[in-house]
Design goal:
11% of the residues lie in helices and 33% in strands. The protein is mainly beta.
Length: 425
Protein backbone atom coordinates (compact mmCIF):
# COMPACT_ATOMS: atom_id res chain seq x y z
CA UNK A 1 0.00 0.00 0.00
CA UNK A 2 2.77 2.44 0.94
CA UNK A 3 4.57 1.85 -2.38
CA UNK A 4 1.38 2.50 -4.33
CA UNK A 5 0.71 5.72 -2.44
CA UNK A 6 4.32 6.82 -2.99
CA UNK A 7 3.87 6.35 -6.74
CA UNK A 8 0.77 8.51 -6.59
CA UNK A 9 2.79 11.17 -4.78
CA UNK A 10 5.36 11.10 -7.57
CA UNK A 11 2.68 11.36 -10.23
CA UNK A 12 0.48 13.92 -8.52
CA UNK A 13 0.17 17.18 -10.45
CA UNK A 14 -2.56 19.08 -8.57
CA UNK A 15 -1.18 22.19 -6.91
CA UNK A 16 -1.65 22.10 -3.15
CA UNK A 17 -4.17 24.67 -1.93
CA UNK A 18 -4.94 23.78 1.69
CA UNK A 19 -7.62 25.54 3.71
CA UNK A 20 -7.95 25.81 7.47
CA UNK A 21 -10.22 23.12 8.87
CA UNK A 22 -9.93 23.84 12.60
CA UNK A 23 -7.97 25.84 15.17
CA UNK A 24 -7.59 26.10 18.93
CA UNK A 25 -5.43 27.67 21.63
CA UNK A 26 -4.50 24.88 24.04
CA UNK A 27 -2.32 27.26 26.09
CA UNK A 28 -1.73 31.03 26.08
CA UNK A 29 0.82 31.82 23.37
CA UNK A 30 0.38 28.39 21.72
CA UNK A 31 -2.05 28.27 18.78
CA UNK A 32 -2.79 25.08 16.86
CA UNK A 33 -4.31 24.83 13.35
CA UNK A 34 -5.26 21.93 11.04
CA UNK A 35 -5.12 22.53 7.28
CA UNK A 36 -6.53 20.18 4.65
CA UNK A 37 -6.73 19.89 0.88
CA UNK A 38 -9.13 17.16 -0.25
CA UNK A 39 -8.05 17.48 -3.88
CA UNK A 40 -4.46 16.25 -3.32
CA UNK A 41 -5.36 14.92 -0.62
CA UNK A 42 -3.38 16.58 2.16
CA UNK A 43 -3.42 17.07 5.96
CA UNK A 44 -1.12 19.59 7.71
CA UNK A 45 -0.74 20.36 11.42
CA UNK A 46 0.56 23.84 12.24
CA UNK A 47 1.44 25.31 15.65
CA UNK A 48 2.26 28.97 16.30
CA UNK A 49 4.46 29.72 19.33
CA UNK A 50 4.75 33.22 20.85
CA UNK A 51 8.47 33.57 21.58
CA UNK A 52 7.93 36.89 23.39
CA UNK A 53 6.00 35.17 26.19
CA UNK A 54 7.82 35.05 29.51
CA UNK A 55 5.96 31.80 30.27
CA UNK A 56 7.08 29.91 27.16
CA UNK A 57 10.45 28.17 26.91
CA UNK A 58 12.07 26.09 24.16
CA UNK A 59 14.13 22.98 24.87
CA UNK A 60 16.28 21.00 22.45
CA UNK A 61 17.17 17.40 23.26
CA UNK A 62 20.28 16.81 25.33
CA UNK A 63 22.48 13.92 24.27
CA UNK A 64 21.43 11.62 27.11
CA UNK A 65 17.82 11.78 25.84
CA UNK A 66 18.62 10.77 22.26
CA UNK A 67 16.86 7.95 20.47
CA UNK A 68 13.40 8.19 22.04
CA UNK A 69 10.05 8.97 20.44
CA UNK A 70 8.74 12.52 20.32
CA UNK A 71 5.98 11.56 22.75
CA UNK A 72 8.53 10.10 25.18
CA UNK A 73 10.62 13.27 24.94
CA UNK A 74 7.54 15.41 25.56
CA UNK A 75 6.74 13.38 28.67
CA UNK A 76 10.34 13.42 29.89
CA UNK A 77 10.77 17.21 29.78
CA UNK A 78 7.14 18.10 30.54
CA UNK A 79 6.62 19.86 27.22
CA UNK A 80 3.18 20.95 26.03
CA UNK A 81 4.36 20.76 22.39
CA UNK A 82 7.12 18.66 20.81
CA UNK A 83 8.29 17.93 17.27
CA UNK A 84 10.95 15.60 15.87
CA UNK A 85 14.36 17.00 14.99
CA UNK A 86 17.20 16.37 12.55
CA UNK A 87 17.72 13.42 10.21
CA UNK A 88 20.04 10.90 11.83
CA UNK A 89 22.11 7.78 11.61
CA UNK A 90 20.72 4.88 13.63
CA UNK A 91 24.19 3.33 13.65
CA UNK A 92 25.50 6.44 15.48
CA UNK A 93 23.60 5.42 17.57
CA UNK A 94 20.94 8.05 16.84
CA UNK A 95 23.51 10.66 15.85
CA UNK A 96 21.99 13.75 14.17
CA UNK A 97 23.46 14.63 10.76
CA UNK A 98 24.00 18.23 11.86
CA UNK A 99 25.11 20.10 14.96
CA UNK A 100 23.06 19.28 18.04
CA UNK A 101 23.04 21.22 21.31
CA UNK A 102 20.79 20.54 24.29
CA UNK A 103 20.82 21.96 27.80
CA UNK A 104 23.56 24.40 26.61
CA UNK A 105 25.88 21.47 25.85
CA UNK A 106 26.95 20.32 22.35
CA UNK A 107 26.51 16.66 21.51
CA UNK A 108 29.67 14.69 20.86
CA UNK A 109 30.56 13.97 17.26
CA UNK A 110 28.02 16.38 15.74
CA UNK A 111 28.83 19.35 13.53
CA UNK A 112 27.17 21.83 11.19
CA UNK A 113 27.98 21.58 7.47
CA UNK A 114 27.41 23.65 4.34
CA UNK A 115 24.63 21.23 3.37
CA UNK A 116 22.50 21.90 6.44
CA UNK A 117 20.51 24.77 7.88
CA UNK A 118 20.77 25.32 11.64
CA UNK A 119 18.12 26.41 14.13
CA UNK A 120 19.46 27.72 17.44
CA UNK A 121 17.83 29.26 20.49
CA UNK A 122 18.62 31.12 23.68
CA UNK A 123 16.87 33.08 26.40
CA UNK A 124 17.35 36.86 26.40
CA UNK A 125 15.63 38.62 29.26
CA UNK A 126 12.09 37.29 29.61
CA UNK A 127 11.71 35.98 26.06
CA UNK A 128 13.17 33.39 23.72
CA UNK A 129 15.37 34.42 20.80
CA UNK A 130 15.73 31.93 17.94
CA UNK A 131 17.42 32.06 14.54
CA UNK A 132 17.71 29.89 11.43
CA UNK A 133 21.13 29.99 9.74
CA UNK A 134 21.26 29.07 6.02
CA UNK A 135 23.55 26.24 4.86
CA UNK A 136 26.36 28.51 3.67
CA UNK A 137 26.81 29.76 7.25
CA UNK A 138 28.70 26.92 8.91
CA UNK A 139 28.45 27.37 12.68
CA UNK A 140 30.35 25.90 15.59
CA UNK A 141 29.33 25.97 19.25
CA UNK A 142 31.91 28.74 19.78
CA UNK A 143 30.56 30.88 16.93
CA UNK A 144 26.95 30.79 18.09
CA UNK A 145 25.58 33.64 20.24
CA UNK A 146 26.64 33.65 23.86
CA UNK A 147 24.07 31.80 25.94
CA UNK A 148 22.89 29.43 23.19
CA UNK A 149 20.90 26.70 24.90
CA UNK A 150 19.85 24.50 22.00
CA UNK A 151 20.52 23.80 18.32
CA UNK A 152 19.01 21.48 15.73
CA UNK A 153 20.12 20.94 12.14
CA UNK A 154 17.91 20.25 9.16
CA UNK A 155 17.56 20.33 5.39
CA UNK A 156 16.60 21.54 2.95
CA UNK A 157 16.25 25.24 3.66
CA UNK A 158 12.64 25.94 2.63
CA UNK A 159 12.34 29.72 2.91
CA UNK A 160 14.98 32.44 2.81
CA UNK A 161 14.09 36.07 3.61
CA UNK A 162 10.42 35.44 2.90
CA UNK A 163 11.03 33.75 -0.49
CA UNK A 164 10.63 30.03 -1.17
CA UNK A 165 13.89 28.31 -2.09
CA UNK A 166 13.17 27.36 -5.71
CA UNK A 167 15.68 24.61 -6.53
CA UNK A 168 16.03 21.87 -3.91
CA UNK A 169 18.25 18.89 -4.62
CA UNK A 170 15.86 16.38 -6.18
CA UNK A 171 18.51 13.64 -6.05
CA UNK A 172 18.98 13.74 -2.26
CA UNK A 173 17.83 10.32 -0.98
CA UNK A 174 17.37 11.65 2.56
CA UNK A 175 15.05 14.59 1.89
CA UNK A 176 13.26 13.39 -1.29
CA UNK A 177 12.71 17.10 -1.81
CA UNK A 178 10.81 16.86 -5.10
CA UNK A 179 8.45 14.07 -4.03
CA UNK A 180 5.32 14.42 -1.97
CA UNK A 181 6.27 12.83 1.34
CA UNK A 182 5.57 13.19 5.07
CA UNK A 183 7.47 16.24 6.35
CA UNK A 184 8.27 18.23 9.48
CA UNK A 185 9.50 21.80 9.49
CA UNK A 186 10.02 24.88 11.63
CA UNK A 187 9.94 28.54 10.63
CA UNK A 188 10.35 32.02 12.09
CA UNK A 189 8.52 35.21 11.25
CA UNK A 190 10.46 38.29 10.10
CA UNK A 191 10.23 39.98 13.52
CA UNK A 192 11.39 36.82 15.29
CA UNK A 193 8.36 36.92 17.58
CA UNK A 194 6.67 33.74 16.32
CA UNK A 195 7.92 30.19 15.78
CA UNK A 196 5.93 27.97 13.42
CA UNK A 197 6.03 24.17 13.72
CA UNK A 198 4.49 22.04 10.98
CA UNK A 199 4.00 18.38 10.16
CA UNK A 200 2.54 17.02 6.93
CA UNK A 201 1.04 13.53 6.80
CA UNK A 202 2.16 11.52 3.79
CA UNK A 203 2.38 8.15 2.04
CA UNK A 204 -1.23 7.52 3.02
CA UNK A 205 -4.49 7.46 1.08
CA UNK A 206 -5.79 10.30 3.26
CA UNK A 207 -2.72 12.50 2.74
CA UNK A 208 -0.01 12.07 0.10
CA UNK A 209 2.39 14.62 1.58
CA UNK A 210 4.12 17.71 0.15
CA UNK A 211 7.25 18.52 -1.80
CA UNK A 212 9.82 20.81 -0.20
CA UNK A 213 8.72 23.70 -2.43
CA UNK A 214 5.04 23.15 -1.59
CA UNK A 215 5.76 23.17 2.11
CA UNK A 216 7.84 26.32 1.70
CA UNK A 217 4.96 28.00 -0.14
CA UNK A 218 2.54 26.99 2.60
CA UNK A 219 4.80 28.39 5.33
CA UNK A 220 5.42 31.69 3.49
CA UNK A 221 1.65 32.14 3.24
CA UNK A 222 1.47 31.61 6.99
CA UNK A 223 4.07 34.34 7.61
CA UNK A 224 7.40 32.48 7.50
CA UNK A 225 10.51 34.57 6.82
CA UNK A 226 13.04 31.75 7.34
CA UNK A 227 12.11 28.07 7.35
CA UNK A 228 13.88 24.74 7.26
CA UNK A 229 12.80 21.12 7.02
CA UNK A 230 13.40 18.67 9.83
CA UNK A 231 13.58 14.91 9.36
CA UNK A 232 10.63 13.68 7.31
CA UNK A 233 9.16 10.36 6.27
CA UNK A 234 8.17 8.13 9.15
CA UNK A 235 10.05 10.41 11.59
CA UNK A 236 7.59 13.30 11.15
CA UNK A 237 5.77 13.62 14.47
CA UNK A 238 4.00 16.39 16.38
CA UNK A 239 2.81 16.02 19.97
CA UNK A 240 0.53 18.38 21.91
CA UNK A 241 -0.23 17.79 25.59
CA UNK A 242 1.11 14.26 25.39
CA UNK A 243 -1.02 13.24 22.41
CA UNK A 244 0.26 12.54 18.91
CA UNK A 245 -1.43 14.98 16.51
CA UNK A 246 -0.43 13.59 13.13
CA UNK A 247 -0.52 10.12 11.57
CA UNK A 248 3.00 8.68 11.16
CA UNK A 249 3.40 6.95 7.83
CA UNK A 250 4.51 3.67 9.40
CA UNK A 251 1.40 3.53 11.56
CA UNK A 252 3.51 3.72 14.73
CA UNK A 253 5.70 6.43 16.23
CA UNK A 254 9.37 6.09 15.39
CA UNK A 255 12.31 6.71 17.70
CA UNK A 256 14.32 9.70 16.51
CA UNK A 257 17.64 11.28 17.44
CA UNK A 258 16.58 14.66 18.77
CA UNK A 259 13.55 16.88 19.23
CA UNK A 260 12.33 20.38 20.01
CA UNK A 261 10.03 20.89 22.99
CA UNK A 262 7.89 23.86 23.99
CA UNK A 263 6.93 24.32 27.63
CA UNK A 264 4.28 26.68 28.91
CA UNK A 265 4.02 27.81 32.51
CA UNK A 266 5.92 29.73 35.14
CA UNK A 267 9.58 28.87 34.64
CA UNK A 268 11.42 28.04 37.90
CA UNK A 269 13.48 31.04 38.95
CA UNK A 270 16.94 31.67 40.30
CA UNK A 271 18.77 34.65 41.77
CA UNK A 272 21.49 36.96 40.39
CA UNK A 273 23.59 39.03 42.79
CA UNK A 274 27.00 40.52 43.25
CA UNK A 275 29.19 43.42 44.32
CA UNK A 276 30.07 46.51 42.29
CA UNK A 277 33.79 47.09 42.68
CA UNK A 278 36.71 49.28 41.61
CA UNK A 279 39.40 46.63 41.85
CA UNK A 280 39.69 42.86 41.99
CA UNK A 281 36.71 41.05 43.47
CA UNK A 282 38.84 39.58 46.25
CA UNK A 283 39.99 43.04 47.40
CA UNK A 284 36.46 44.36 47.05
CA UNK A 285 35.04 41.59 49.19
CA UNK A 286 37.42 42.28 52.03
CA UNK A 287 37.80 46.06 51.90
CA UNK A 288 34.89 48.50 51.59
CA UNK A 289 37.23 51.08 50.05
CA UNK A 290 37.11 49.11 46.79
CA UNK A 291 33.30 48.97 46.59
CA UNK A 292 31.00 51.23 44.54
CA UNK A 293 27.67 51.98 46.24
CA UNK A 294 25.08 54.01 44.37
CA UNK A 295 25.70 52.44 40.94
CA UNK A 296 22.71 51.86 38.66
CA UNK A 297 22.39 48.14 37.87
CA UNK A 298 19.96 47.25 35.07
CA UNK A 299 18.98 43.61 34.53
CA UNK A 300 18.25 42.54 30.95
CA UNK A 301 14.55 42.11 31.77
CA UNK A 302 14.30 45.85 32.49
CA UNK A 303 14.48 45.80 36.29
CA UNK A 304 16.73 48.42 37.87
CA UNK A 305 18.46 48.54 41.27
CA UNK A 306 20.93 50.89 42.91
CA UNK A 307 23.85 49.13 44.58
CA UNK A 308 23.37 49.57 48.33
CA UNK A 309 25.74 50.89 50.99
CA UNK A 310 27.74 47.67 50.74
CA UNK A 311 27.82 47.99 46.91
CA UNK A 312 25.57 44.94 46.62
CA UNK A 313 22.78 44.29 44.11
CA UNK A 314 20.40 41.33 44.24
CA UNK A 315 17.78 40.34 41.65
CA UNK A 316 15.38 37.59 42.74
CA UNK A 317 13.01 35.63 40.47
CA UNK A 318 15.30 35.53 37.44
CA UNK A 319 14.23 33.13 34.70
CA UNK A 320 16.99 30.50 34.22
CA UNK A 321 19.18 31.73 31.35
CA UNK A 322 22.35 33.63 30.63
CA UNK A 323 21.34 36.83 32.46
CA UNK A 324 23.14 40.13 31.96
CA UNK A 325 23.43 43.32 34.01
CA UNK A 326 24.52 46.73 32.78
CA UNK A 327 26.21 48.85 35.45
CA UNK A 328 26.57 52.63 35.20
CA UNK A 329 27.80 55.40 37.50
CA UNK A 330 29.26 58.84 36.89
CA UNK A 331 33.05 58.69 36.82
CA UNK A 332 33.13 55.09 35.57
CA UNK A 333 32.79 53.43 32.19
CA UNK A 334 29.49 51.63 31.70
CA UNK A 335 29.90 47.86 31.72
CA UNK A 336 27.73 44.91 30.77
CA UNK A 337 28.43 41.49 32.28
CA UNK A 338 26.62 38.15 32.12
CA UNK A 339 26.27 35.00 34.18
CA UNK A 340 24.26 31.79 33.86
CA UNK A 341 21.34 31.61 36.30
CA UNK A 342 20.07 28.17 37.25
CA UNK A 343 16.77 27.27 38.90
CA UNK A 344 16.74 27.72 42.67
CA UNK A 345 20.41 28.75 42.84
CA UNK A 346 22.20 32.01 43.63
CA UNK A 347 24.41 33.04 40.71
CA UNK A 348 27.21 35.44 41.61
CA UNK A 349 28.03 38.14 39.07
CA UNK A 350 30.22 40.82 40.68
CA UNK A 351 31.33 43.60 38.36
CA UNK A 352 34.56 45.62 38.35
CA UNK A 353 34.13 49.13 36.93
CA UNK A 354 36.93 51.00 35.21
CA UNK A 355 37.32 54.72 36.06
CA UNK A 356 36.63 57.03 33.13
CA UNK A 357 33.78 58.10 30.86
CA UNK A 358 31.97 56.39 28.03
CA UNK A 359 33.09 57.32 24.50
CA UNK A 360 30.63 59.75 22.95
CA UNK A 361 30.29 57.62 19.82
CA UNK A 362 28.90 54.76 21.89
CA UNK A 363 26.18 56.88 23.45
CA UNK A 364 26.63 55.18 26.79
CA UNK A 365 27.03 51.65 25.44
CA UNK A 366 30.19 49.93 26.65
CA UNK A 367 33.07 49.08 24.34
CA UNK A 368 33.79 45.42 23.72
CA UNK A 369 36.96 45.90 25.75
CA UNK A 370 34.90 47.01 28.70
CA UNK A 371 33.19 43.63 28.92
CA UNK A 372 36.39 41.61 29.06
CA UNK A 373 36.11 38.93 31.71
CA UNK A 374 39.53 39.81 33.07
CA UNK A 375 38.10 43.02 34.48
CA UNK A 376 35.65 41.25 36.70
CA UNK A 377 36.52 37.61 36.96
CA UNK A 378 38.79 37.37 39.97
CA UNK A 379 38.26 34.40 42.21
CA UNK A 380 35.53 32.93 40.01
CA UNK A 381 33.10 35.50 41.39
CA UNK A 382 31.34 36.31 38.15
CA UNK A 383 34.16 35.53 35.78
CA UNK A 384 32.31 34.01 32.77
CA UNK A 385 32.62 35.44 29.28
CA UNK A 386 30.91 38.81 29.40
CA UNK A 387 30.20 39.26 25.71
CA UNK A 388 26.83 40.85 25.00
CA UNK A 389 24.50 37.95 24.07
CA UNK A 390 22.36 40.23 21.92
CA UNK A 391 25.07 41.00 19.36
CA UNK A 392 25.42 37.50 17.96
CA UNK A 393 29.09 37.33 18.86
CA UNK A 394 30.32 33.83 19.44
CA UNK A 395 32.09 32.08 22.22
CA UNK A 396 31.32 30.89 25.67
CA UNK A 397 27.83 29.49 25.14
CA UNK A 398 28.74 26.02 26.03
CA UNK A 399 31.77 26.03 28.31
CA UNK A 400 31.83 22.91 30.41
CA UNK A 401 32.33 24.51 33.81
CA UNK A 402 30.40 26.93 35.96
CA UNK A 403 32.02 29.68 37.99
CA UNK A 404 31.60 29.37 41.73
CA UNK A 405 32.71 32.00 44.25
CA UNK A 406 35.28 31.12 46.87
CA UNK A 407 33.60 30.10 50.11
CA UNK A 408 34.72 33.25 51.93
CA UNK A 409 33.16 35.48 49.26
CA UNK A 410 29.90 33.54 49.24
CA UNK A 411 29.72 33.78 53.02
CA UNK A 412 30.41 37.54 52.88
CA UNK A 413 27.64 38.18 50.36
CA UNK A 414 25.29 35.90 52.30
CA UNK A 415 26.00 37.92 55.44
CA UNK A 416 25.32 41.18 53.57
CA UNK A 417 22.02 39.82 52.29
CA UNK A 418 21.02 38.62 55.74
CA UNK A 419 21.62 42.09 57.18
CA UNK A 420 19.72 43.80 54.37
CA UNK A 421 16.76 41.45 54.76
CA UNK A 422 16.63 41.94 58.52
CA UNK A 423 17.89 38.50 59.53
CA UNK A 424 19.86 38.28 62.73
CA UNK A 425 23.24 36.64 62.50
Amino acid sequence: MRAAVALLALAGTAAAAPSKQSESTPHPGIHRETWVDAAVPLVIQLVRIDLTSAEIGLYATKESDRGITTTAFSDRVGAQVAINGDAFSVAGPYRPRGLAIGDSTPWTNTADTDQLALFHLRRVGERTVAEIEPPEVVSTPASLPLGTQGAIGGKPLLVRAGIVEPQPDCTDPVTLACQRTPRSALALTADGHTLLLATVDGWQASSLGMTAVELGQFLVTRGAYMAMALDGGSSATLVIDGNLQNLPSDGVERRVANHLGVKYGALPSGELLGLICTSSIVQCAHDAAFRVPGATVTLDDGRVQISDANALYDFANVTPRLACVTVAKAGYKTKRQCQTVDSGIQAYNSVVLEPGTDPVVDAGVPDASETDASLGGDGGFGGRDTTNPDDGAGGGCCDAGRDHPPIALAVLVGWMLARRRGTKG
